């Protein structure tokens, strides 16, 4: 009887533990948290042509290391099997609605980012691709400074979303196929070619200058 009681006690603890784990998982899912597995890239050495003194560049490198631990980030294109080139980036701020007095009620914030992924010979694994993210934000001209801070925060959130979308694109199955085909010398003659050693645009420490509602030249 004593041992049976112990078994019942341990069984009850086991079920409680399982229930707690399930509840925690459901809570994290409700908060938008998702457990992500490793997505290894087909190449062993990658050069990221995004300045590492920017938050965006640092976030991209961190995401690559987490998704593909066996892919080494190298310091120069000449060392790489694949090269991530930054083509252009911009932020926009646009009025989308006015009230009866003609004052702005909401703005649309936008990020447009263009990149390409090539192999060491300049063959496009991912041709020029533009990722666009837009968010709408209500506006009150009585609290301009507070709203400017909200704009800065919203752009940072959008930038994190951009990193996730960029990573999903460069780890997609078609990238694996394109790299394997390039390694085997398969060339249809239609693959775009780029200069793998082309200098990348130099950016100021902040990758984009955040548009300001206090400067009318930044608003369209």
Automatic annotation (TrEMBL):
What organism does the record attribute this protein to?
Achromobacter arsenitoxydans SY8
Q: Where is the signal peptide?
A: none
Gene3D superfamilies in the record:
Lipoprotein like domain (3.30.160.150)
Give a short account of what the protein does: Together with LptD, is involved in the assembly of lipopolysaccharide (LPS) at the surface of the outer membrane. Required for the proper assembly of LptD. Binds LPS and may serve as the LPS recognition site at the outer membrane.
Under what name is this protein listed?
Answer: LPS-assembly lipoprotein LptE
Q: Which domain of life is it from?
A: Bacteria
This protein's UniProt keywords: Cell outer membrane, Lipoprotein, Membrane, Palmitate, Signal, Transmembrane, Transmembrane helix
Under Pfam families, the record lists:
LptE (PF04390)
Q: What's the family?
A: Belongs to the LptE lipoprotein family.
Q: How does it assemble?
A: Component of the lipopolysaccharide transport and assembly complex. Interacts with LptD.
Q: Where is region (Disordered) located?
A: 183-220
Here the segments flagged for biased composition (Polar residues) are 207-220
- Give a GO biological-process term: Gram-negative-bacterium-type cell outer membrane assembly
